[in-house]
Write a structure and sequence with these properties.
The complex is a heterodimer of chains A (109) and B (113).
Chain A (H helix, E strand, L loop, with lengths): L3 E3 L4 E4 L4 E7 L6 E7 L6 E6 L4 E3 L2 E6 L4 E6 L8 E8 L5 E3 L3 E6 L1
Parallel strand pairs in A: 2-11
Antiparallel strand pairs in A: 1-3, 3-8, 4-5, 4-9, 6-7, 7-8, 9-10, 9-11
Chain B lengths: L4 E3 L2 E4 L5 E6 L6 E7 L6 E7 L2 E5 L6 E5 L5 E5 L8 E8 L8 E2 L3 E5 L1
Parallel strand pairs in B: 2-11
Antiparallel strand pairs in B: 1-3, 3-8, 4-5, 4-9, 5-6, 7-8, 9-10, 9-11
Classes of the chains: A mainly beta (109), B mainly beta (113).
């Protein structure tokens, strides 16, 4: 079983829509969680960290549920520029980064 | 601001050849990580170095080796290349202890024919 599981999508949503991505992780001892964004053929870039108390940055909200080992990302008022692959990342034992397979988002005009 | 530099950006090799990928971390970053991302796959951690010593090892094949030099740049050496080694290879850097914030380089796209 992979350390991190994500719904690969693709998600095709109209501009202005709200979209949510989910991610589950298998190692209950994991301590740190992130969402990265990766544009086609480009490097992953940190979007935001995920905390149990929730983390909001403009139109983006990330949430962590430790009991269910579940991470979410909510994007409100989607923009065309939000089109990308969103990678869920978990730091496991040994301080290794474990990436999910990514969820593809296309925002349609 | 200076970012992680990787070279070459693109590389074409034939089976059984060798390849060397280079990574120059962000200035003052002391930790370097290597990842392999196959087509349609998520990045897979290969290996990391802190202060020129291997700090962690992931799914790096025995045919690959890596090291970090005194100027903190790192090289990934790949021998006996196989078709399945075709992938995007990312290097990332961070401060040790703040490894949550890894900054990724643009990647080297390796194609093995």
């Amino acid at each position: 079983r992979k350390e991190v599981e994500q719904d690969p999508g693709p998600f095709n949503v109209p501009e202005g829509a709200t979209v949510a991505f989910n991610c589950t992780y298998s190692n209950s001892a994991s301590q740190s969680f992130f969402w990265y964004r990766q544009d086609c053929r480009k490097e992953p870039k940190l979007l935001m960290s995920v905390y149990s108390s929730g983390n909001e940055d403009g139109r983006f909200t990330a949430q962590l549920n430790r009991a269910s080992q579940y991470i979410s990302l909510l994007i409100r008022d989607s923009k065309l520029s939000d089109s990308a692959t969103y990678l869920c990342v978990v730091i496991g034992t040994g301080n290794q980064f474990y990436f999910g397979t990514g969820t593809s988002l296309t925002v349609i005009p | 601001a200076a970012g992680v530099i990787q070279s070459p950006r693109h590389l074409i090799k034939e089976k059984r050849e060798t390849a060397t990928l280079k990574c120059y971390p962000i200035p003052r970053h002391d930790t370097v990580y290597w990842y392999q991302q196959g087509p349609g796959q998520d990045p897979q951690f290969l290996i990391s170095f802190y202060e020129k010593m291997q700090s962690d090892k992931g799914s790096i094949p025995d045919r690959f080796s890596a090291q970090q030099f005194s100027d903190y740049h790192s090289e990934l050496n790949m021998s006996s290349l196989e078709l399945g080694d075709s992938a995007l290879y990312f290097c990332a850097s961070s401060f040790w202890g703040i490894m949550e914030t890894q900054y990724f380089g643009p990647g080297t796209r390796l194609l093995v024919l």
